[in-house]
Specification:
Layout lengths: L22 H10 L1 E2 L2 E2 L4 H7 L6 H12 L9 E2 L4 H11 L8 H7 L1 H4 L25 H9 L1 E2 L11 E2 L8 H12 L4 E2 L5 H12 L3
Antiparallel strand pairs: 1-2, 3-6, 4-5
Length: 210
């Protein structure tokens, strides 16, 4: 944990780690803040804006090559696109016949950017389906992101920064837990749900004076 953000798994785990990332994905992420279907947020923004975007290509590629050499360190998460769970998630949003906690919130506040399929928009909005941060065993970074919002990195060669709003005033602890649990278990994602207690604890921590 660093400043209420959870450090990502950088091993070759195929769900929460870099197993499905290519070396080119990793190098692009360090240079532009976008890669491997995700966008940098939180304290990683400072790292990219003030450091890694200025690395030489050879150094970026060397880091990427090293990270891809790390063996998988398993976590209790999986990503299985094309499973019945994907159909169920889409049905819940398209037809409204299947009501799952968090579905309505996702439809109302998340679909515009992250799409009904969870595919996002390359270079702008992260893909949630199979996103290694979404599949992290510890959901604190996702909770932090919803509570405080974020802005993607401003880099010399990257896309125009996009802003995600804060939902701290709009969503209750229960609502945040439900929509994140929906995201973490839709489109083939499968990982532990988020609890109201986890949201409440982080909200309280972020409200404490420095």
């Amino acid at each position: 944990m660093v400043d209420n953000w959870y450090a990502a798994n950088l091993t070759g785990d195929p769900a929460s780690g870099l197993g499905r990332w290519s070396e080119a994905d990793i190098a692009a992420f360090l240079e532009t803040g976008h890669g491997g279907q995700i966008a940098a947020f939180g304290s990683m923004i400072d790292v990219i804006e003030n450091s890694t975007q200025y690395l030489h290509k050879d150094d970026l590629n060397a880091i990427a090559h090293y990270l891809k050499s790390l063996p998988a360190h398993g976590e209790k998460a999986s990503y299985e696109p094309g499973t019945p769970a994907v159909t169920l998630a889409l049905s819940a949003m398209v037809t409204g016949e299947v009501e799952r906690p968090g579905t309505g919130l996702y439809q109302s506040f998340c679909v515009k950017c992250h799409k009904i399929t969870g595919d996002g928009e390359p270079g702008k909005y992260p893909k949630l389906a199979g996103n290694s941060i979404v599949l992290s065993k510890n959901p604190i970074s996702l909770i932090h992101l919803l509570l405080e919002g974020s802005k993607t990195a401003q880099t010399k060669g990257g896309p125009e920064p996009q802003e995600m709003p804060s939902f701290a005033e709009k969503f209750s602890d229960r609502q945040i837990a439900e929509v994140l649990s929906f995201i973490r278990n839709s489109w083939g994602n499968k990982v532990s749900p988020v609890t109201t207690r986890e949201v409440s604890s982080l909200r309280h921590a972020l409200q404490k004076p420095p």
